[in-house]
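Morning F.,

Quick status update on the modeling queue. The single chain you submitted on Monday has been processed. Sequence for confirmation:
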Amino acid sequence: MRSEISEKVAVRVKVDRQMNFSLNTPSQILPHLKGQDHAEKLVQRFLKASQFEQERIIRKAPRLQMSPSLDEFHFPESKTHETKNLDLFSGTGSASKVVINSRGDLVDVDVEISLVKAVDKKGRFQFIIQEEDKVAFIVVCKVIPKFRGKGIFKKMAASIRDYCFEELGVNTISGNARPPRDENGKDWRRELVTYRNNFTTGEPVKLSRLHRLWLDQPFTVHGAIIGSDDAESFAILNPKHLKEFSEEDFKNWDENCPKQNKQNTFMELMKGSAA
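Structure tokens below.
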């Protein structure tokens, strides 16, 4: 009996391949529907759709969980407020995002996102921040070209931490280690270097020089530690909220995200404050 069933299954698989048949199920899109309005209507549409339409939905659904893609920025010419070291400009960014409409279809919509551009009063760097639910996203940041190679990056990273943690009061700063899109050509920031060895295989883990530079900053971990799927992501943790973690947590973060500057390790920075 078992052999007969196996033969029947083998025949069905062969026929399916010959007919280029594939079985699509709602489980393929469910992970992308968390927190989405009208998610149930999309599932209903999926179940009634043709195979061609189902595959279109499967390809587009992952974009529901992606951050809006910013196309252009709009900031006033004059600063709207300031801190001791930064001129601040409140503005917006025009972006596109995929949502589920009331009919259960995936559509692209234009959105306006509130942003703040911070400019160093000495003209050495600038960055743009999006704040949302106690998280600050670094939209873009850069050291002005004539100041590069002079140790300004660390000052910029410190300024981002001070502004986001002290002025905005966020818990986490999130970003990715990709150079600004308007800067092309050969770039040291994109060169791959060995970060550490894979704990299982022993093979070297390669990251870009820019990613390595970000991960070497104080209170910074790879984005994967806080659940990011972006391979080039990083997260900066607010030290005020780290006292609830244990020394074992700090050791684990330091092992996964080793620092070239040992003074920037979590064990060193949080010495005597572990729970």
